[in-house]
Amino acid sequence: MIGPVEEAPGGGREATGGPEGAAPWRRLSPRMLLIHPVQEVVRMAPALLGLLIAGSSSGNPGMVWSLCGVAAVVLYGVLRWFTTTYRLTPEHVRLRKGVVLRKVLTVPRDRIRTVDITSPPLHRMLGLARVEIGTGRSGISAGLTLDSLSAEEAARLRVELLHRRGTAGGETRPAAGAAPTVATGPAAESGQTVATAPAPQTGPPAGEAASSPGPGETLLAELRPGWVRFAPFTMSGLVAIGVFATFVWRLFSEWGVDVRRVGPVREGWHWFSGLGLTSQLVIGVPAFVVIVAIASTFGYLFAFWRFRLTRHDGTLHVTRGLLTNRATTIEERRLRGVRISEFLTLRAVGGATLTAVTTGLNQGSQRSGALLPPAPRAEAERVARRSSSTARRRRPPGPARPVPRPPVRHR
Amino acid sequence: MLRAPAHRVSRTAIWYWFTKALLGWLIAAGFQAFWVVVRDHHEPLRIAALTATVVLAVPHIAVMPWWRYRVHRWEATPLAVYTRSGWLTQEWRIAPISRIQTVDSVQGPLERLFRLATVTVTTASAAGPVRVSGLGAETARRLVAELTANVQSTTGDAT
């Protein structure tokens, strides 16, 4: 296992050669040595649990087996750190990884569209952040994930990957319209200051680096506490409850326990089925609605707490999250448009959601392209105009605002 | 008529495909043999299944690797990546360099044993990535470096 690890960096250098061979291969944060094993144990939990159950029926040796299983998984987690290296050159970002299956992933710098920085609670505690680099290809193997770097390193990387390239494509510069300095030189410099500014102050938490607007930043939207009133109407709680229920159900069946035999559940069910159909509906439906509303509200707070949408140097930047911090950066010249959608129940109370239409974002999670939490429709329209305005203004190279912008249409 | 891509894959790939197929069939046949030995009814059915496996496996292992070697070809120019792969079903694919999103190279344990690598070129296409398998590890590295350099020199949106 160690052999290919040690030969890996050398092999890369001889292959690429030339001046870029000078770029050093970097490792992930050493603090990942603590997180990787935990991640692997959690990921392997069903298998380990199965091993434990199978083991406990055969007495003492079974325990030994399951301990061996845990040890192997932990070892694998540690090896993950030793086998992962990455490198930035002026042309590309390259990641080498894999314990058994060796992979070398290369993303040309020019193809990078989005940078997504996520800090789940465990990462936050250790001051780490996961960086996902998105390309025009969307899907599971969409781009390249560095899990994880220190928060400062992640913030630096984001700026380096997106903003420095903004300097090359100078026509996007007027995007930072509200900033007093619009000339190319100062704006580029301010980009650099933002890059370095968060470094000293961000000790522990990742996303908090962006809590104060930097020099070149324009604030487009921010979460207002009043918007939480829309949370119960998003119905996102339905999904959460579904996931939770499935998880509990699987856990119980994994342990071979019949949920209907558990004391309180059985008595509750007994009491409920004793009622007539009318009373069942009268109690059941409101109870269900209340539970969904509560779950939706929690989901809203977890996802959108400290939500901020800013524009900076040709990119849109979203930071949000209560426990898991997320920072998504979308290059504006790759933004194809915005979408306002009004879910039935949300429409009933005058709310709407706003998402970005772009490639390179994780399509799996609905909220990764969110430009606004569920909010009043007027607000969604306002932000839609502001966030898509540069795309429209860029087309005619004439005066700044030749025609009044058409209102954003929605259905 | 389309001309075939210029380069063949590494000759070692024949033995890699051979070993891979052999291992796969051995596992399948092993399970079936175990079944024949252990259980004591439906004997004829299980023996028939095992026989069928062997009858399918032998020609596959004996023919597929060499056939594949004759088919698999690749070529990378400053304009496009061009591949031909498969054996019974053959696929010809061209990905313009200007559409390339990422360039990956993957080495599984068995590939590492044979010093081979697979280069995967992803595009925004819904048809999935273009793969060049059975390349020598060194060739794969050069191909990745060359592709990346070419991609960087063609700016644009790539979707």
Automatic annotation (TrEMBL), chain B:
It comes from the Bacteria. Residues 69-145 form the YdbS-like PH domain. Keywords: Membrane, Transmembrane, Transmembrane helix. The chain crosses the membrane at residues 12-35, 47-67. Pfam families: bPH_2. This is Membrane-flanked domain protein. It comes from Thermobispora bispora (strain ATCC 19993 / DSM 43833 / CBS 139.67 / JCM 10125 / KCTC 9307 / NBRC 14880 / R51). The lineage of its organism: Bacteria, Bacillati, Actinomycetota, Actinomycetes, Streptosporangiales.
